[in-house]
Amino acid sequence: MHKKTIFLLQETKELNEELAEKFSNEKEFEVIGKATDGISALSMISDLKPKILITGLVISGYDGLSVIARAKELDSQMKVIVISALCVDDVISKAVGAGADYFMAKPYNYEILKERIKDMTTQSAEQPLRKMGNSHVVDTFHRVTLEEKISKIFINVGIPPHI
Questions:
Q1: 135 in a domain, yes or no?
Q2: Phi and psi, residue 31, nearest 5°
Q3: Is residue 163 part of a domain?
Q4: What is the pLDDT of residues 38-60, one digit of tens each?
Q5: For a surface tag, which of 23, 87, 135, 144 has the fewest beta carbons within 10 Å of its beta carbon?
């Protein structure tokens, strides 16, 4: 079985160690690098070439958004998961626009994080992509889009949705 390689970039060494310890108990994951600042993280990511980056947004050196964008330039197939307490729509949109594939709010549930990684790394090539900003985000979990919500409202009040 091929292990899914993970790079951890969190605000503190303790957060990285906590996540690394959890992943060390999993047979399908391998943490191949950890950093607490964006500059050293990008250098290590370039050398180690992980399949998954788990990052925060408030990081010294380069901030999380800059790291996401630069990491995606290095490897557009790398999956990026953001774990952050900054959960306002604007921040989430910027993270996704920079290339994040998934956003989790702190405090996060490790089991859900693990499920999302498995979902993102076992997708078939046939799954639809939707365009968001400058990046493609795989619509794995069929989130209801704003257009679908508005169309349903129109239909409920008797307005044809194509108007």
A1: no
A2: -80, 115
A3: no
A4: 999 999 999 999 999 999 999 99
A5: 144
Residue-number span of the structural domain to which 51 is assigned: 4-126
Q: How many CA atoms lie within 13 A of 53 on its CB side?
A: 33
The CATH number for 30's domain is 3.40.50.2300
Which one-letter DSSP state was computed for residue 101? S
Q: Which residues of 91-108 are buried (b: 16+ CB within 10 A; e: fewer)?
A: bbebbbbbbbbbbbeeeb
Instruction: Determine contact, residues 85/44, Cβ cutoff 8 Å.
Output: no
pTM of the predicted protein model? 0.74
Say if 106 falls within a structural domain: yes
Quote the number of domains for the chain: 1
What is the biggest distance separating any 2 CA atoms in the chain, rounded to whole angstroms?
57
Helices and strands counted in the chain (H then E): 6, 7
CA distances from 12 to 58, 66, 134 (A): 10, 18, 29
Q: How far apart are CA 88 and CA 62, in angstroms?
A: 21
Q: Would 80 be classed as within a structural domain? A: yes
Q: Which whole-number Å values give the CA distances from 158 to 84, 147, 148, 154, 161, in the listed order?
A: 40, 16, 15, 6, 9
Residue-wise pLDDT for 21-38, tens only, equals 999 999 999 999 999 999
